[in-house]
Design goal:
The structure is a homodimer. By secondary structure, chain A is an alpha+beta fold. The first copy, chain A, has two domains: about 5-80, Winged helix-like DNA-binding domain superfamily/Winged helix DNA-binding domain (Arc Repressor Mutant, subunit A), CATH 1.10.10; about 85-139, Ferric-uptake regulator, C-terminal dimerisarion domain (Dna Ligase, domain 1), CATH 3.30.1490.190. Helix content of chain A is about 45%, strand content about 20%. Chain A is built from six helices and five strands, in the order H-H-H-H-E-E-E-E-H-E-H. At the A-B interface, helix 5 and strand 5 of A face helix 5 and strand 5 of B. The structure holds a DNA duplex (25 and 25 nucleotides).
Chain lengths: ~140, ~140
DNA sequence: ATGTATGCAAAACATTTGCACCTGG
DNA sequence: CCAGGTGCAAATGTTTTGCATACAT
């Protein structure tokens, strides 16, 4: 029951919010831009404005339901939060996104922030490259 | 003689390009947005259009003279390339940017990319936090 | 000369906002 | 009923582009 998630997050349970959450949960593609979500809603037959999609995603981010990736190249990409922190590997050729966790890197980041006198609030790590499939295609 | 750098990069030596390069080299602030560079040019009395600043910075990036940081929050920031790779620490309160290099992280990234079958082309790592000075101010 | 580079204004783009209307609790 | 949510269109902020003019070689 997703309405619980919304209520828990202090958000009124409305149709647009439920539908956006549904899209994020049910779409195979785990990482979606606001535009992607908007298009998915249209295909689903829901008449929800793009501005609302942006508002809802931003609220979800504030509520910790969703996190926003800041990838190179214009538009933001969102993913459902599943509790576990992770970083991303992006294929520059096919835009596939994979996730990984590396405790060694996490620890080094803490050490570096401490050395520089920073109180770390968050961090973002993206590795860009060409995935296995695209390497094959390119010969 | 900066004109050499431009010629070496395959760029015709023009006044706007020389001036932008000069700003990047002589400004205390190592990390500048296009707008920052544009304002610095105006203060210097140079009548160079913002569009040109963008074009020049993009060409410099292509030529490897400059690198573009993709920081959260809208506008891109540029820095002169000095040969050494490094990552960044950003203060979310005063926007100060510090640099660091960590060979352990570099190596782990290579390993992770290899494990996932990616041919790594580049990576970006930003640690966000509150710097020492801002911690003091905030009490 | 002549192929590029520049300046300006307009376009493009992702995202945000103002406001009248609608809706969930 | 009423605070809060939504849709639409217009505004925003950054970056890009078309085109006529100016410049480097």
């Amino acid at each position: 029951m997703e309405s619980q998630d919304l209520r828990k997050a202090g958000l009124k349970v409305t149709l647009p919010r439920l539908k956006v959450l549904e899209i994020l949960e049910q779409t195979a593609q785990r990482h979606m831009s606001a535009e992607d979500v908007y298009k998915a809603l249209l295909e689903m037959g829901e008449e929800i404005g793009l501005a609302t999609v942006y508002r809802v995603l931003t609220q979800f981010e504030g509520a910790g339901l969703v996190s926003r990736l800041s990838i190179e190249g214009g538009h933001a990409v969102f993913e459902l939060v599943d509790g576990s922190h992770h970083d991303h590997l992006l294929c520059v050729s096919c835009n596939r996104i994979e996730e990984f966790v590396d405790e060694v890197i996490e620890e080094r980041q803490r050490v570096i922030a401490a050395e520089k006198g920073f109180e770390m609030t968050e961090h973002s790590l993206y590795i860009y490259g060409i995935c296995k499939e695209c390497q094959k295609k390119a010969g």
